[in-house]
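re: ur question from earlier - yeah i can do the single chain one, its not a big deal. heres the input i used so u can compare w yours
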Amino acid sequence: MRPHRRRFLVLGLDGGTFDLLTPWMESGELPFLASLVRGGASAPLASVYPPKTIPAWYSFATGQDPGSLGIFGFTEPDGGPGRSRLVQTFRPAEAVWDHLSRVGVPVGVLNFPLRAGYPLNGFLVPGMISENPPTFPETLRGTLERALGEPYVPELPAYRASDRATWIGQATHGVEQRARAAEILCKTYGPDFLFVLFRETDRVQHQHWSELAGPHAEVGHDLREFWRAVDVALARVDGAFRALGTPAITLVISDHGHGAARSDFFTNRWLAEEGYLAFRGSASGLRRRLVSSSLLAAEKWGPTRRLVHPVVDRLRGGPRREAFGRLVTGESSFEAMASRIDWAKTVAFSYPVPEGIYLNRYNRSLTAERGAEAVAEIKHKLRAYPGARVEVFEPKDIYRGHNLENAPALLLKVDELETELRMDFSYAKPMLRERPGFFYGTGVHRMNGILVAAGDGIRAQRRAAPFSLLDVAPTILEGMGLPVPASMVGHSFAPWLGLGPN
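and the output i got, formated as tokens:
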């Protein structure tokens, strides 16, 4: 028991949104989460832009926006044109648990997206980016797996409709195992701060949003069991954490929201049409154009749609299958097409962040003046794009930080994120309004994440206006009686929660 310090549990539901969770809570499917909302405080939680897992969770952890961290997506430029790498880390910025650890607070972090753990006063089990990333302590993975009686579950594999039962079963098992792991680690380390991330929620929503958001009675039993497992897992972790002592606060947050994916915009295709991206020869081969037009035609008629979907599905789910698919359909990824781009003539391109447009640093004749003119032209043309609402921002318009060396020159948002931005050349036209059912799933990220707070001293209340994801780390520090460093640009909402000095 540690009555001298308020303790914080943060449960991360990747992609969680009240748009989906509220109807499920009201239907009785999520009784634990509903009890937190009923007895505590809740509000929307606005994500950063782009609302992607890596920049969003890193911004939550550090209280700094992507412009401060220099992180704008899953990947960052790496060497020459068409080359990128996974983002390595948010460090040297410090996470909220780093600040707590330094002053002697025992902390725990489970399944946060990192390539490797690092020393702190407690434990860190990374997830998502690498299949078996090193933990801290280094021996923790083996110890944890022995206690679990099985290997620690990695990130879910690529989805195939023919493997739906197995895939959703893996997602459900991952959620259940995460809860058991958190219980074991709570008993072993006794953290006063604990973060646990459930990534599976985002992956399931990407693939099955249209079903999940439809009439509740029509949702498959497997998906209902998955969400019930999520609710039970939240309850188990909460119970294990509270058993260590009070006062304790539970925050349930998400990195971003989720919603329906209506269409796709192929930014590089548009840049090529407008003359800003130049190819040596054709931007796509005859085979690719024929395949894409045939797939779109097949989608419009029931018998051919039922024939095509299983064929496309079988080309997913592994290097060999995908290599065969490229052999059949032709190359379309930006990486594969990069060798065909005339970099000496290209002014702008979209890569490696799909929401971004980058000026071509490999074009030696592109002066600063011409670059500025191109940015202004592109901005004007996209805002006037027919048939879609395209919002265009410069990094300085939306970020407080100025670590913008790897930032795009422009950031795009189309149709309030109902239209997903793509970097590849899969289709002949920039806008794909009728998204095929075999495409990338039915869900896509939104800005509207969730905040639920419950526990000792929390006032029961609802708020319609969103807090910022950047506000969470300062709130935790203030709620634990610690100063908020100047590097954190968010604002604590601890007073709104009713949390006075600890």
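Residues 321-330 have pLDDT under 50 and may be disordered. not sure if urs matches, ping me
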